[in-house]
């Protein structure tokens, strides 16, 4: 089958590659370019785990052919962190305990930043609508909503983040400053850390 | 989950797309726009085309143009662009409302108006809204352009009035008058987000009573349909909730029971009941928009 030459700019880095037309963008990002933060869940446009930004908009990378993305600017979860500093949404997920297994998290973060880049002060209904296309089977969503609120507050320079207040007010999981631990190659499970 | 292999062609212009369609005549060809109906069918093996012609990069087929009388909406215009257009919300409220209710944010960022309408999925949110809005479909073929009234466009499940050699290039929607309102109401499937029933309503009013109404529904028959008994009942009625409720009661009176959609999510009987309920909600939603309009609208 004929391959097609395409150019993808991922997190600011340009990549020239040849792909079969049937190759899904999620697979190109993961298998060809190594951006494995783009998780593949349902592969049916339902779960949102593979959400990336394409020319600034959140899209599900399992439902875009790589040839369709030729020339596009893409952002994956790897592109959120800049020069060693967490993006506010990453910090929000950490502070507000917005994840348990973590599988939906990259997609959730990219759906959330698509919202926050246009509206840094969303209400709860707007946040829930923005993540409607992303499924989480662990958290029950409330802490994710808190994490997005936290990130919004941080992005608009409001230090009294509503997320922190919410967690304290409703007796939810207390926020803690976790130490970031770098896991070495031998560590496979939590107990290895 | 890779789809089976296919040949891929990218069209640079409408003319190029028509040339490619002619070149591949006799082969199984699918047109690729946003791909949010096509890719799932490719992945599940429901469609196994020889050739995909990608029309998604044709600039001339995207964007919303507006004049005093109506909108010309390029086929490649995304749902998110419709939802984000204050002009379309104001001038074709039911259509914008329906686009807003499609899928989720990511789907609305990729799916296109033309792809949706040409695909003619009975469960599409835009089927009823196109009819309620009095829209027209514009198709380009080898012999030129053709206008197809929305009421004549949908022929059945995934079947339209488009000829195989024609390309849907844009749709046209008339602008509502200043006293007119519209709304869309849907009962969404909890798993897929597709409507089990969706109803779009447009009320033309003189500020005090309804002059005429257009009500379109999707996913109750094998294609979008007008609910004419409701439309007829509404004409001449006052802008009051009781009138809306009475008109919704007759929504399914003239529908052929045998042709009513029936699936795992809803029996035909339940779907008819939902149709009446969601017709009422669409009409009350439209009424709310009159009541929430600035006082100047009532002058």
CATH architecture of the largest domain in chain A: Orthogonal Bundle
**Average pLDDT score of chain B:** 95
Average pLDDT for all residues of chain A? 88
**Element pattern of chain B in H and E:** EHEHEEEHHHHHHEEHEEEEEEEHHH
- Give me the number of helical elements of chain A: 6
Overall geometry of chain B comes to globular
Notes on the protein architecture:
The complex is a heterodimer of chains A (193) and B (299). Chain A has 193 residues and is of the alpha+beta class. Chain A folds into two domains: 4-79, Beta-grasp domain (Ubiquitin-like (UB roll), Roll), CATH 3.10.20; 88-169, DNA polymerase, domain 1. Chain A has helices at residues 25-32, 88-95, 105-118, 124-130, 142-155, 162-169; strands spanning 4-10, 13-19, 51-54, 57-60, 73-75. Chain A has a five-stranded mixed β-sheet with strand order 2-1-5-3-4, covered by helices on one side. In chain A, a hairpin with a 2-residue loop joins strand 1 (4-10) and strand 2 (13-19). In chain A, helix 2 packs across helix 5 (142-155), helix 3 (105-118) crosses helix 5 (142-155) and helix 5 (142-155) runs antiparallel to helix 6. Chain A is globular. In chain A, 46% of the residues are buried. With 299 residues, chain B is α+β, with helices and mostly antiparallel strands. Chain B has three domains: 7-48, no CATH class; 64-174, Uridine Diphospho-n-acetylenolpyruvylglucosamine Reductase, domain 3 (2-Layer Sandwich), CATH 3.30.465.10; 181-291, CO dehydrogenase flavoprotein, C-terminal domain (Enolase-like, domain 1, 2-Layer Sandwich), CATH 3.30.390. Chain B is built from twelve helices and 14 strands. Chain B has helices spanning 14-23, 38-43, 79-83, 86-91, 93-100, 105-108, 113-119, 126-132, 150-153, 228-234, 241-249, 268-291, and strands at residues 7-10, 29-32, 51-54, 64-66, 70-74, 136-141, 144-149, 154-156, 159-160, 167-174, 181-188, 195-205, 210-218, 225-226. In chain B, helix 5 (93-100) runs antiparallel to helix 8, helix 10 (228-234) packs antiparallel against helix 11 and helix 11 runs antiparallel to helix 12. Mean pLDDT of chain B is 95; it is low at 295-299. The A-B interface holds A 1-2, 4, 20-24, 27, 43-46, 48, 51, 54, 57-60, 62-65, 67-68, 111, 114-115, 129-130, 132-134 and B 1-8, 10, 32, 35-36, 39-40, 42-43, 52, 54, 56, 80, 103-107, 109-110, 191-193.
